[in-house]
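B., you asked whether I could sanity-check this one before it goes into the benchmark set. Here's the sequence:
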Amino acid sequence: MEGDQLSSPTDDQHRIDIDTDTAAETKSSSDTVDDGGEAERKWLRKLTSATVNKAVMRDLIARTPMLWYLGERSGTILRSRPGRNGRVDALHAVRAVAIGPFHRGDPGLAFPDDAKLPFMRYLQDQCALDVDRYVAALSAERARLRDEFADDDEPVVDRALLDDEERFLQMLLLDSCFVLVVSMMLSKAGVGEDADSAARAASINREYFILHMAVAQHAEQIKLDMLVLENQVPFAAVKLLVASCGRLKLRHCVEQVVLGCFDDVCPKRARRPCHAAGAEFHHVLHLFHWSRVPETKYAILSTPLKLLKIKRESERLFPCSIELRHSAVWFRQSDASDSCSSSACQSHLDMSFWSRPASPLAVMSIPCFHVHEYSAVVLYNMLAFEMHFHWAHGACVTTHVARMEGLVRCATDASFLRGRGVLASTRFTDAELVYFFRELGAHTVGARLPDEFGDMLDAVACHRRRRISWWCGGFVLHFFPSPWVAISLFAAAAIFVVPSLLQTVYTMLSYIKSTS
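And here's what the prediction gave me:
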């Protein structure tokens, strides 16, 4: 989102008129008291009024982002605001399916509302979906589900759909059925193996074949549409749908089934999927974001003290890779594997910096970051999610984009990082990679960043202030500009030194033999 879209409410929205709030309580008493001491204590009644206290508490919650979940929040599924440039607008567009109210009128979608009916019918026939029971459960939770959709700057048609109970429940029914069936089709963690063979045979029929082929044709675009911030349905509605399917048997929880759709989407998982069962998620994008960020890092708890120490604006920018090379910083690809270990996974959005006072060298460890054609859509919507809810869900993606924007400032930086194995792309040139990170980095301007960002900036600045680091980096760049130079010198030394050494040893052995 743009910076002006994410600004906090103005002070006018938090003004509390104490006289207005307590007028009803003090009116009767003010008519009966005299002009003596009783009238002079009106201010005390105002301060002890329960109405005023509630109003102040509401204002305090609204002013404290960490308490966003206690206040009357505007919803976690947000409508993109108009007036943006075409590049950003394309990152919020959907091309296959509209999930939720905001894109339902878009033309050219592969799965309009009527095309979602067979997905509901499939759950009825094969999974014993009790539609009446499910709609009743949705109706009971309607107020909570309705709160997940934001009301700010919505068109009238969207607000009318959300406030109309019949249309709102119909939207939740169709979209939840679509998300669940598509997840079972595209995910490896699908229907359980303990289901009887008759049910499995019955599920492979003509209707299922048609649905599967239709989904397979648009699978890649459906996945991207499910990761757009404004194209979501409350995840609680999907969980209610699973509970309403009597014969649905899943190998894993529904969260793992949905995450299985994105196993081939970069960035890779950073947490074990089994941990998702005990967490509460607002929508699919929230679940995807949770699975990609480290568990105990990049939380925003206060204003980063390290950033407050940085006075000059130029020091707020992360140094580029060429500047770091001149100060003897070595880049190393961290061991970020696609599979999870017994404890946790290595995040593809995390990096570390190592430096010691006794060593002139420093090491920056970065996981290999693959840039695909869809990366801009995925990262931008994760950025937008963090911009609104960074107090609750951290700012890992924002931090990673801010650091990568600094590291990749020119084509030489991109080429160098490609050679070090920390940046990969088969579709983008070096200049296009620079533009890619610059465009994403523009959306992090003014964003709150966690302490980890300030700590790394401080460590890098401390290392670059050492003269011995600059001397060592300049020496390596001047005499060993590439690994091939070192290999050539080693080979030349081996050609001239090894024969001479062997000749000397042979002469010594011959002399010893002749004298013995």
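One thing to flag: The chain has a mean pLDDT of 79. Otherwise nothing jumped out at me.
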